[in-house]
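Hi F.,

I've been meaning to write this up properly since the lab meeting, where we talked about keeping a consistent format for the predictions we share between groups. The idea is simple: the sequence comes first, exactly as it goes in, then the structure tokens exactly as they come out, then a line or two of notes. No screenshots and no reformatting. I'm using this chain as the first example so we have something concrete to point to.
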Amino acid sequence: MQKIALSSSLPQAPAPACPPRAVVVMGVSGSGKSTVGELLAQRQDWAFVEGDAFHSDENHAKMRAGVPLTDEDRASWLEALGLELARLAAGGVVLSCSALKRAYRQQLRAHVPGLVFIWLEVGRDAAHRRVAGRGDRHFFPATLIDSQFATLEPPHDEAGLLHLDSERSLEELLAHATEWLQRTPHAHP
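Output, unedited:
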């Protein structure tokens, strides 16, 4: 007869599954992430963080001049965004951020366990048209759109992701995002 050792400590119960309280609306420039992110935050009654506001003056100047950012340019920006997400996550937060590479998304996830992403996918022509339509109101020129698509590592196989076609109506995007957030449980740390 085999003896089974009994442990004196009880197993830890898994953390309760709860809807996420921190989400990044991601995509290339012109995908609508700021518009969708801000309206989604209003619907959820959460804080909204505009990722572009956290770029350094040097990064803004580079982009205005039509020079694509490098991983090094983005490193301190992503760190600042991660810290801001962590600071606001308990109360609920939506961040608009390109998050183009898997490594960038992982850097943000390291700050907020359970962080989820909504990827607004847009076609190259639509992105060009949207960004060109901004005129001088924005620091990001349409000439940089191609560099965004070249940098993008689509998050097709990543967990905690909603993939939406950003050329759908704003109301459809918000409805899908809201419904997904309500039915997407994750374990809070």
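Notes:
The chain has one domain: 18-180.
The CA atoms of residues 40 and 174 lie 6 Å apart.

If this format works for you, I'll send the rest the same way.

G.
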